[in-house]
Amino acid sequence: MTDLVVRKMDFAFEDHDVPFLWNETNPAFSSMANAVSFLAIGFEKMIVKMILQLKPQITDPEVADEADAFMRQEGQHSGAHRQHVRALIRRYPGLQDTLDAVIAEFDALTEHKPLKYRLAYTADLEATFTSVFKLMLDNEASLFRPGDDRVASLFIWHFVEEVEHRSSALIIFDSVVGSDLYRMRVAPSIFAHVLKVIRIACAGFNEHVPLEDRRIDSLSMFGTYRNKKALSKWLPWLRTPDFGPMTRAFDDLPLGEQLIALKGIIRSQLPKHDPAHENLPALADVWFDRYAAGHDVAHWYATDALLTSGAKS
Ligand SMILES: [Fe+2]
Ligand SMILES: [Fe+2]
Q: Rounded CA gap, 14 and 222, in Å?
């Protein structure tokens, strides 16, 4: 029996406007997280279709159980990110084209790539999440806390559940395909696709969201783009439009923690990687306890303020 819990969440994005710049203290992180919302919709749609297609091939009942719960969690994530992105599109209608382009990238994988490739894609990408999300959740005080509570709560929920189901995709891949060699061989094309999709989202932000709402060049997270921009100061024929300051989301995070995350990402792609042994963000356990106790985790920081003031009095 899997331990995964399928949780339905309502972040009330319909209630009032959802800002693109949802954490004003870190415009680059606001933009990066928004890009994750776009990617999540397409990626998790692909996962749900893949598991449905895969079900008849899963013979081990425990793996079938894991796959079902994994798919249901991803389905909930995708639905919540759709509500978030729908709110952004209401404000910036041009972003509908961006969303369509992102989803089309994943629909193309569903249509043209074999199941084992899509399984490897899911296993490879999900394997990186524990290290990446630990870095973010360990730095929640600067990345999430100063932001819009609904958007911050959406990402915290999604990231702790990614930590919770960190082994699922590899369990399914190992049961159905079971080849570390294949997973490693296709990894470069998988991560190239992930970066391509994030680039589509960021280029869409530059095009459809005014600079006063974005405050940064959304493409500044890409090293190749930064290098080209730097070179264009001396090589005018490389010059591209100016989309704003080139700040990065993690510039203020401790370098040591960033290096640990980077090492974790590399480790996650090696043979025999077992996510069960990863170091986990402390916030995940707090989150699961609060959810189990019935607290309102869809407004994480409002609830946090209530609980902390209650604990002090
Ligand atoms: Fe997810
Ligand atoms: Fe996931």
A: 32
